[in-house]
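Hi L., both proteins are below.
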Amino acid sequence: MQNYSPRAQSDGIKSADLNSPNELSAEEYNSYSGAAIGGTVLMLLPVAYFDGLLFEVVKCFAVSALVGGGLGAYLSLRKDGVGEKVNELGADVLNAVDNLGN
C-alpha cells in the first residue's frame, strides 16, 4: 500500500529539488496557485484551437488544466530564477482577477 500522507508527498517533492507547497507562506502559495491558473488559461486557447475552435469546451479546459496548470505549478515550485519568474506571473494573474471587480 502506498503512503499518500502530506509528509510523504512533501518528501517526494523535495527529492525533486522543488519547494514544498506545504511549507510556502500564504503569499508564496497564492502565487503558486496563480501560476497553475495562468498556465491553464495560457493552454486553453491553443488546445481549443487545435481541437476545432471550442469543440467540447470541457475537454479543452481539462487538457489545459492538466498540461498548463500542472506545468505552471511545477515551474513555480522550482528553486531558481524560473520559479521566481513563474511565481511573479502567478501573482500577476491573481492581481488581474482581483482587479476585475474594481
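That was the first. Here is the second:
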Amino acid sequence: MKRILIFSTILFLSSGELHALSKPNVLLLLVDDLKPAMGCYGDKHAITPHMDTLSKRGVRFNLAYCNQAVCAPSRFTLMLGAHSTSTGLYGLGSHLRQVMPNAVTMSQYFSQFGYRAESLGKVFHIGHGNLGDPQAFEVPHFHDKVIEYLVPESTDGGKLTREEALFTNQKLGQIRSLPRGAAFEAPVVNDEGYADGRVANETIKRLKAAKERRAKEDTPFFIAAGFVRPHLPFSAPKRYWDMHDSAKLPLADNKSFPKNAPRVALKSGGEISAFKPVPPGGKIEDDLARKLIHGYYASTTYVDAQIGKVTRALERLGLAENTIVVLWGDHGWHLGDLSIWTKHTNFEQANRIPIMIIAPGVTKKGVTTKQLAETVDIFPTLAELAGLPEPKVPQSIDGVSLVPVLIDPLARVRDHAFHAYPRGRRLGRAIRTERYRFVEWKNHSDATLPVDYELYDYEADPWETQNHYAAKPDVAKKLKAILDKYPAPKTRK
C-alpha cells in the first residue's frame, strides 16, 4: 500500500491534475529484431525521428538486454517476467499453456485490477507450430502478417515461401521443399500496404475507443502493439529505402569470429539463408551485405514512422499525460559483425536492446541511464508504476522493478544482466556487467562433459575480437561466482 500512495502522490504533485488519482493506462510498443540502431542511441546512420522524440519524453536505458535472442522465448520473458531458464520455454515452437497452464501473463495480471487488455500485431510469437497465447488478452488478438511480399518476383510468382509457411503454420513438415522468398523488396505503396501500417491504424482506433470507454466507465487500458519490421524480409515502401544511401551505410568493423571462442558459441548461415539471393551456405559478400544493411535501416525508418503515428495520436487524444509508454525491442541483430547475421547468439549485437519508459509524473524528460536492465524487469516495473501489488503469480518473477532508476537514473537496482541461449545439447548462460560479459556453455544433463567459457571486455575490446577468459582468470572467477548463484536451468520444453 505504501508504494501505491507514494506513486499517486508523485503523480499528483508533478502534474497537479486530478487524472493522476486514477490508474494510468499502459501502452507497450514492441518492435521485432530492433537493436539500438536509432538516432537517440547515437547511431548517426539511423533515421528514427519519432522514436528519438519519444526518448526525450522519458528514460532511455543504454545498457538493456533481452533474456534470450530469439523471438518466441524473448516474448515469453516479457509477458511472464521469468527467464527461459526458469520456465523451460527456449524454442520457437514452445507452447506456453502446455508447459505452464496456470501462468499469469503481465496482461492477465493487469486485467485482475480492472484493466482492459488488448493486443495487436506481433506480441506473442505465432508460427513454427506456436499459436501464441490467446487467453492472455480479453478481446481477440488483432493478427497480421510477419512475412509479407507485394512483388510477385519476391515469391517466384506468388508461391508459398519457406518463411511464409513457418509463420503461418502451414506445411511445417515440408519446409525444405518450398521456394525461398526474397530478402528485401521496395515497392511504391503506402504504409498500409504492409502489416505495420495496418497495425498502427488499428492501434489508433483502439486508443480512440479506449478514451471513450474511460470517459464512460473509467476503465484503464493495457494495449500491446507489436510491429514486425525490421524483421526479415526487409519489405518496406520505396520511399523509406530512398531516405538512405547504401553506399554511406557502414559495413561491420569486425567480420571475424572472436579469437579463441569455443565453437559452440559461433553461428554461420541460419535464418538469413532462408532468403534469396543469400547463398545457401550463408556467406555474404560486401555488395549483398550493403543491400541487407540498407534494408535493415529502411525497415527501421518505416517502423519508426508507424510508431510516430501512434504516439502522435496518443497526444492528440489527450491520453499521453496519463499513459505509461514502453518501447522495447525483443532482441538485437547481427549485421555481418563477427561474420554473423540475424540473432541466435550470446554476443552483444544479438542481445543489446532498446528500452524506453515514459511514466508521466515519475520520469523526467530526456534522461538516460547506464543501469543494466533486462526484459524481465518490465513486468514488475509496470506493476509498481500502476500502483498494483508486487506480482505474486505461479511462475517465478525474475525481474526487478526499475522504478527507483526512473526516479533517479543514478540509482542502481542490479549490477548485472542475465541472458541465455541454447545450442544443441548445451546451454550458454551469460552475465553482462557494465564492462564484461561472461558465458558458460554447459550440458546440464551430463556433468561429465566438458564446459566451455567466454569472457569479453567491452572497455578494451568493444568489437569482441577475442575471448579473454584465459587472460583474465580473476575477472572470470568473480563473474562465474555470480552465475553460480542462479538456480539450475530447467530443461527445454
